[in-house]
Structures are given as C-alpha cells and as structure tokens.
Amino acid sequence: MSKIRSNKALMGSGVFLALTSSLCCIVPFLAIVGGTMGAVSAFSWITAIRPYLLCATALILVFAFYRAYKPEQKDECGCKEKRGMWQSKTFLWIITAISILLSTFPYYASFLQKGSTKEVVINSQNISMAVLQVQGMSCAACEGHINKALQGKKGVQEVRTSYDKGESIVKFDRLLISPAQLSVAIENETGYKVKNIKTDDN
Fold first, then answer.
1. Rounded to two decimals, what is the model's pTM?
2. How many CA atoms lie within 13 A of 55 on its CB side?
3. In this structure, which long-range contacts are made by residues 41-50, counting pairs with CB atoms below 8 Å and at least 24 apart in sequence?
4. Measured between alpha carbons, how far is 202 from 197 in angstroms, rounded to an integer?
C-alpha cells in the first residue's frame, strides 16, 4: 500500500510541476479560448523559475521509470509481486506523455490560436502607429491575449504583438482612439504593464 501511495505521489508531483511550469502560458490561452479578460499576467513570474520546475519534473519522472523498470522483487513464496494500475509501466508512460505536453505548451501554443491578427478598414488619412513596450509577456499565448484586448476597440485597424521583443505595434485612427487609451486597455484587460509608448508623431 505504501508503495502504491509513493507511486501516486511521484506521478502526481510530475504532472503538477509540469502544469505549474506552463501556467504563465496556459492561463492566457484559456482566457482567449473562453473569451474572457483578466489580469492573467499574475502568472508571468513563473517564467523565471520555469527551468527549475522542468528539471524537477524530469528528475521525478526519471526516478519513477527507475522504480518501474528495476528488477521485480519476489515475495516469500518466490512469486513475483503483482503490480496494480498505479504501478504499471503503461500508466507511467501515459503520465509522462501528459507531463511532456504540459511542459512544452509554450512552444506550440501559437499553433492553437486562430485569428490573432485583424484588420479593419478605416480612414487612412487619420491612421497613426504606436509601439507599446509591454512588460510581463512570456509566450505566444500572451501575444494573443493582448491582440484580442486591442482588436475589440473602436478605431484599431491592426495589432501585431511580439513577446520576444516585448512590444505591441498598433495601427489606429487617432480621431477615434489615443495611444493612452490603448495602454489603458492592455493594463485593465490583461494585467500586463505598458512601460513606454512611441508613436510616429514623436
């Protein structure tokens, strides 16, 4: 019984750490899919400790595989000890696959998002461009969250966000919306902080 509990704890810890390591990207993605807004940037701090969480996940899984594939012990009658579902190699491989999918989510999140850019036809004479320096983004899901927050604003023609560069480039009708309002939309609807705004007027 103690061995079964130990296996449950090992596998549960592996999945939990894998999930935690990608929360900074999973939460923004779920917000986009669910059509909700909110301060999802609260999980961006996980990015800094993500390598340690991934290492811990790998170590736990390696130890679990060692226990699963080490020579089986025999009981007093010389029979091999029977293994339940929690101790089976098949279940371990399933848990490993789940952990890998969770751990690598930031790398394929962008392929799961559709319609991340949107263009609206407005008066070209009033078009301006602003580059907003955004703090707190960690993956493609963060880009999509900011894009969605801005695309719904009247006067916004095009939004292109890059988490690598930490910026969001917005084309907008200056008579309908201002750079300051774009900044407020990002901070209020996503929780990310806008550090600086540059426009083609300055």
1. 0.59
2. 4
3. 41/136, 41/137, 41/142, 41/190, 41/191, 41/192, 41/193, 42/191, 44/136, 44/137, 44/138, 44/142, 44/192, 46/20, 46/21, 46/138, 47/138, 50/21, 50/22, 50/24
4. 10
Instruction: Give residue 35's pLDDT band: very low, low, confident or very high (50, 70, 90).
Output: low
Dihedral, CA atoms, 133, 137, 141, 147, nearest 10 degrees?
Answer: -20
Would you state the structure tokens that stand for residue 86, as one six-digit string? Answer: 């929690």
H or E segment to which residue 190 belongs? helix 179-190
What CATH class does 124-199 carry?
alpha beta
Q: Per-residue b/e over 42-60, b at no fewer than 16 CB within 10 Å?
A: ebbebbeebeebbebbbeb
Averaged pLDDT for residues 19-38 = 65
3-state SS, residue 120: coil
Please report the pLDDT score of residue 89 as a whole number. Answer: 80
Angle of the 179-190 helix axis to the 140-151 helix axis, nearest 10: 120
